[in-house]
Amino acid sequence: MSFEYGETSPVVQTTHGKVRGTLLKGLYDDQFYAFDGIPYAAPPLGPLRFKEPNDFEPWRGIRDCSKPLSKCLQVSSPSNLVEGSEDCLYLNISAKTLHSERPLPLMVYIHGGIFIRGDSSRRAWGPDYFMREDVIHVSIGHRLGPLGFLSFADPSLKIPGNAGLKDIIMALRWIKANAGNFNGDPERITLFGHSSGSMMVQMLLASPRTEGLFHKAILMAGFSMELNRLPHLEYRLAKHLGYEGENVDSQVLEFLLKADPKLLVSADLFTPEEKGHDLMLFKPSIESYATPNAVLLADPKELQRNTWSNRIPIILGANKDEGLLSVVGLKTDPKVLQNFQEYPERVLPPSLKYGSDSAQKREMGLKLLEYFCKAHGEQLKVEHFDVITEIFTHNTFHSLDRLIQARLAYCQAPTYFYRFDFDSPDFNLYRVRFLGKEQRGVTHVDELGYIYVLPATFKLDKSRAEFSTIWRMVSMFVHFAATSDPNSPLTKPLVDWKPVGSGARKVLSISEELKFIPFSMPKLKFHDNLFDQAGVALF
Q1: In contact, 125 and 36? CB cutoff 8 Å
Q2: Pairing between strand 11-14 and 17-20?
Q3: Which of the residues 93, 156, 313, 449 has an alpha carbon 20 to 30 A from that of 69?
């Protein structure tokens, strides 16, 4: 479809006022309209800190939305400095065109960053490649760390938790109400996310609060059937910042409301043992009492059995060597190896790290190391790098497999399964950044360089296989968003991607070529046994 781009600063009327965008040109010269920093909720400042999001007053005149605003307050990687703002409930819209015969499907992205960091804007994830297709791309800024996921059991405080998830739900309501204003189809909204963003998509698929807000989902390399978290985190955070009182919710909250927000997000609460376990701090949790806006009153695993989303199609997948990012420094920093020697439980999947007592965790960690490495403790050496990587890769694929099993047991809609296998020498940007060019493989986050323009992205010669892979991947995702079927006109002649069936598992391998192949990771059975031993049901 060819479009005329007459306006360079288009103005769109929304439910809350007019916004002015800008005409941009992507990395490969595709033009599109961008509207950045559109507010979808009141700034969560002062007494609204930690509370669920509130609607906001419409504005008069035209709001300039030609540039991205601040990301949500966080300790940024890799600078380790506190960056961003508490005032961050904004979304960003990129539209291929504002006028077409038929309204376009919308793809709504939730960024990753272990629930504590990340930037929703095109500074981090430029949607240029999507803008070759007939689609609208939306990304949502939501609260992170304690600002997004702190919770109190005292109902009078009205902070049951999951404010960050409630931010996303409020944004989805805004997107649905305003889709038509941006030439979008409010009945074709696809929610997709990566890593912790993918976990949040999974939680929103399980929640009864989201029915009708989106119609398809894509989960990339982040899955969580359980919502384990460490106890008394709010009290620990307050004490860390100088609070001297008792563990009384109202007093702890009063202290944290007055605390410097930069200190809130940068507090390091981990004990040495917890650091060894590689746990996550503030993240989504089961709300301790019911409210009209409760998102999660049970684990996703439990909610999955009867959720509305069993009736919608999903794509899910991960990368061939997911675990590489979990062993960064193992070859170069003796402390990393020492950590694995001293804390065998570090290699456990997250659901087993939280759910068992210390002795049981240690025993399971030793078993896992013994099974994969034929070694543990002082016997672990740098030479075990590849096998320890394999453990973490299996952890990701085991949690993915649990979700597939749950879908096969309870759902009435297709589940499409991919594995990203492209081992590029120089375009797997996260592997190159964290492990150097001499290390090969396809680590966590590498696939995002094939759907987004990252800060490290460079222009590819059009003869390169990486260039073809970008357009294939984007076309499959957009075709799925438009039709519920990922077999796009570009890829259908190359491969027939079928949904997962009840027989032997097959997976779409995305590499130099696209191939539909048998999925074989026989060692996942060992993970099944560990879960059985810990008394954790798979689905």
Answers
A1: no
A2: antiparallel
A3: 449
